[in-house]
Write a structure and sequence with these properties.
Distance between the termini: 31 Å
Structural class: alpha+beta
Number of domains: 5
Number of helices: 33
């Protein structure tokens, strides 16, 4: 478990421990902590130094699972160094047979689970360079100890206070001797031995039991309130008798005026030796909420997947002539989001999800004009030409990798500014990882099983505990991290909801095509993630599974006598486009209901269709006879359509039937138009043609606009598109995960640099890091001798840019003012100008 053979000398530093690792172990360290690669360390000493920086250690601690965090927290309060058995007692408790407190205990009381899980946790801490040393000398990295060390301003995550020695460091010798005497010990000649004797009493179970047996019940109640933390309490200048009894015996020690603390040794005795109230060695299981037949799950998910595709299509069709305006700060206004939600017949959070998904998929963008508006992109037209399954695949791929988080819409950013759909501030780098992990947990359940959402969140909380609100960026902490405030928990909840909306799950269970989105085992990296190529293949396979489940588009509708048409499934595109102009959508679902109204028929006539065209269209595409009321509606609207003609005078109305114009003039609702008769068949007004057209239609007439040539003006919908746009790039959380090629190169570079930095030399500079200095003749002679003997040399080199470095080279040729040799630092053959070599030194013999 320690990684060193029995009897070997334990490492004296983290750098030395890293130096004993093989290349595969170093690569795993850099993979787990990619921040150590920016830039690539020059040698293992630099790597160890960087691995001990506060920001890097804090990031590494936050990425540990709950039990491994608990082990790190226990090491922070253990002696430095600590033995493996000491650590086991701190995590498990002094009495292995004692039952665990609180929920989460294993079936065997928890001790067995702790013993089995502890080696893995120690190994993880070692592999991530948070812990070094063999099992007899376990040393937590100093920065991690500082982050997890208790103090008045930053309580320990374990709830333990400082030790007796730390608390009494500033106490007067006389007071220390008085406490020792009251505790029943003999006085000593110095404070150090007195404190050691007092600590020994607190660590001796029998003597502590005897001491506490004498304590008043009220004093024991005080200890019970402090034992699990926080360990600090307030006292008055004249403490009560129950407090005075504890203070006199050192069971409570003062840390500042009016403040006392329960020493760590006392708390550990009261806890039975455990650092945590409830060790959590086992990951919570994901519970099943319901079980469905796989066919039902897949069919339900396929139906929802088709609804997702049609919803995005409806959204962008509604914005075909230019969508809502872009806010000055970016994004969609609250009013426009509400209008979009009404148009899609969904709630505002769901509307924000569809808008953000279309934007992430590259189907929607701002047009970039002076009066900036949102509109569909050219990619949307290409997307429409694909099959429904392929269109869904585009949306699913965008959702899986997106860092933009629609669930944040309506919230506030750290500066208390509102977060709007399509606006800034919605990126969360952890979103893709959380989505992938949630789907992976669902995939571990039996096929057709829907999980209990709270159990999924509990599992994620164990795998990556949320950061505590404790000041200083510390992690853990008793009584903190409520799940509702956990960002990853919120992302997980949104993932479960969005997966159902998108058709990745059906009835809460992962579908067959949703399971395919995770990729195959040989396509995943160590973390289980997919690269871009593997993701494209996985999404393609998912679309192949989904395609047969989506109903084939229909070429007919069912006309009904109540002026409605029912589409029992998805319609072919030409039919759907024409019907969208001729009728209004009344309801959606498994079947779409369209309603014919005078306004919708007039809209079709305005688009250039004639009554005969509409009759022929309905007769061709209806599986039921065309109802007589619908025929009458079309004929009646067509007969009156265009009877009145409107042009620009500012505007005029002309009609061959002067009685109709007389009726308009007599109508009191037309008084605001201030119409006047120019001729028996012509009226004029100062109103613009569009306003005149709307007003007369509101009065019940059916006017038609005409061109300057007197022809009927056909109103066609002109699709507005932005220029070519690229989808928004995901904003990853922290540095990107390195691939295998980068890791191999980085390990090789670090090894070579470490060889150059640690190679023994016959002569060394006076100051550490100083380059070797020799005269040019001496440098040349040493180089030539090394060529003949095949010896490696240590050189100082200054590049053309003035960068100084130390290198170990094996010269093979010296001529023309240059030396060519194998550079161990760069792990390749290189040529160096002799005039840039500051000096040379021979390496010491290996023996």
């Amino acid at each position: 478990m320690s990684g060193k053979p029995p009897g070997s000398t334990p490492p004296r530093s983290l750098a030395e421990a890293l130096r004993s690792r093989d290349d595969a172990s170093l690569a795993e360290l850099l993979r787990a902590r990619p921040d150590l690669l920016a830039p690539v360390p020059g040698d293992l000493t630099q790597l160890a130094t960087r691995a001990g920086t506060r920001a890097s250690v804090l990031r590494a601690l936050e990425r540990l699972d709950r039990f491994t965090q608990q082990v790190a927290e226990a090491l922070a309060v253990a002696p430095d160094p600590a033995g493996y058995e000491d650590l086991l007692r701190l995590v498990r408790g002094a009495d292995p047979g004692a039952p665990e407190d609180g929920p989460g205990a294993g079936s065997d009381g928890g001790a067995g689970d702790v013993e089995r899980a502890l080696p893995r946790a120690v190994t993880v801490l070692r592999e991530q360079a948070l812990l070094w040393g063999d099992d007899a000398h376990l040393r937590l990295v100093r920065t991690a100890r500082e982050l997890l060390t208790p103090g008045p301003q930053h309580p320990s995550p374990t709830g333990l206070g400082p030790s007796v020695a730390e608390t009494t460091a500033g106490m007067s010798p006389g007071r220390i001797q008085q406490i020792v005497t009251t505790a029943g010990l003999a006085t000593t000649h110095d404070s150090v031995s007195a404190v050691a004797a007092l600590a020994a009493v607190f660590e001796d179970r029998e003597r502590m039991d005897a001491l506490l047996a004498e304590a008043p019940a009220a004093s024991l109640e005080v200890l019970d309130r402090l034992v699990w933390g926080p360990p600090y309490g307030q006292v008055t200048a004249e403490p009560a008798a129950r407090l005075r009894w504890l203070l006199d015996r050192g069971l409570l020690l003062p840390t500042a005026p009016g403040t006392v603390v329960l020493p760590r040794e006392v708390a550990l005795h009261l806890r039975g030796g455990r650092a945590h109230r409830t060790p959590e060695p086992l990951a919570p299981a994901v519970r099943a909420l319901a079980e469905h037949r796989p066919q039902v799950v897949d069919a339900t998910a396929a139906g929802q997947a088709y609804m997702a595709v049609t919803t995005v299509e409806d959204l962008l069709r509604d914005w075909d002539e230019g969508g809502p305006a872009v806010l000055r700060a970016g994004g969609l206004s609250v009013r426009d989001l509400k209008r979009t939600a009404v148009a899609l017949d969904v709630s505002e959070p769901v509307a924000a999800f569809w808008v953000e998904l279309a934007y992430t998929a590259g189907l929607l963008a701002a047009d970039g004009q002076a009066d900036e508006r949102y509109a569909a992109t050219p990619a949307y037209d290409e997307w429409l030409e694909r099959s429904p399954a392929e269109r869904w695949a585009t949306l699913a791929a965008a959702w899986l990798t997106a860092t933009r988080t629609a669930g944040l819409v309506g919230g506030r950013d750290p500066k208390d500014r509102a977060l709007s759909a399509l606006g800034p501030g919605l990126d969360r780098g952890a979103a893709p990882e959380v989505r992938h992990r949630v789907l992976a947990l669902l995939a571990e359940l039996p096929v057709g099983t829907a999980p209990a959402p709270d159990s999924v969140l509990a599992r994620l909380r164990w795998e990556r505990p949320p950061r505590s609100a404790v000041a200083g960026g510390r992690i853990g902490g008793p009584g903190s991290d409520p799940l509702a405030e956990d960002p990853r928990g919120r992302l997980a909840r949104w993932t479960l909801d969005q997966a159902e909306l998108l058709g990745v799950t059906g009835r809460g269970a992962l579908s067959a095509h949703g399971r395919e989105l995770l990729g195959r085992p040989d396509e995943r990296d160590v973390s289980g993630a997919l690269d871009a190529d593997a993701l494209a293949r996985a999404v393609g396979r998912a679309a192949g599974l989904l395609g047969p489940l989506i109903p084939h588009p229909l070429d007919h509708v069912l006309l009904q006598a109540d002026l409605t048409a029912v589409a029992p499934g998805p319609l072919e595109r030409p039919l759907a486009d024409t019907l969208a102009v001729l009728a209004d959508v009344e309801s959606k679902g498994g079947a779409t209901v369209y309603r014919f109204t005078p306004a919708s028929v007039r809209r079709a006539l305005d688009a250039g269709r004639t009554a005969g065209d509409l009759h022929a269209f309905l007769a061709t595409h209806s599986r039921t006879p065309v109802p007589q009321p619908l025929t009458y509606l079309i004929d009646d609207v067509a007969r009156r359509h265009g009877q009145l003609r409107i042009g620009a005078a500012s505007a005029y109305v002309r009609c061959d039937d002067d009685s109709v114009l007389g009726e308009i003039l007599a109508d009191r609702r037309a008084q605001g138009l201030r119409l006047r008769r120019l001729a028996p068949t012509v009226l004029a007004t100062q109103a613009d043609p569009a306003s005149l057209l709307d007003q007369l239609r509101a009065m019940g007439f059916a006017p038609a606009a005409e061109t300057p040539d007197g022809d009927v003006m056909i109103a066609r919908i002109h699709a507005y598109r932005t220029g070519p746009r690229t989808p928004p790039e995901p904003a990853p959380e922290g540095p990107p995960r390195p691939d295998d090629i980068l890791l191999r190169a980085a390990v090789r570079a670090v090894r070579a640099g470490d060889l150059a930095a640690t190679a023994p030399r016959k002569s060394v500079p006076e100051q550490p890091g100083e380059l070797p200095r020799t005269s040019p003749p001496e440098t040349l002679a040493t180089m030539q001798a090394a060529v003949m003997t095949g010896q490696s040399l240590w050189i100082g080199y200054v590049s053309a840019e003035g960068a100084a470095s130390q290198r170990v080279i094996a010269p093979v040729r010296v001529e023309g003012g240059y030396v060519t040799g194998y550079d161990h630092t760069a792990d390749e053959v290189r040529t160096y100008p002799l005039h840039r070599i500051t000096g040379v030194a021979e390496l010491a013999d290996d023996d």
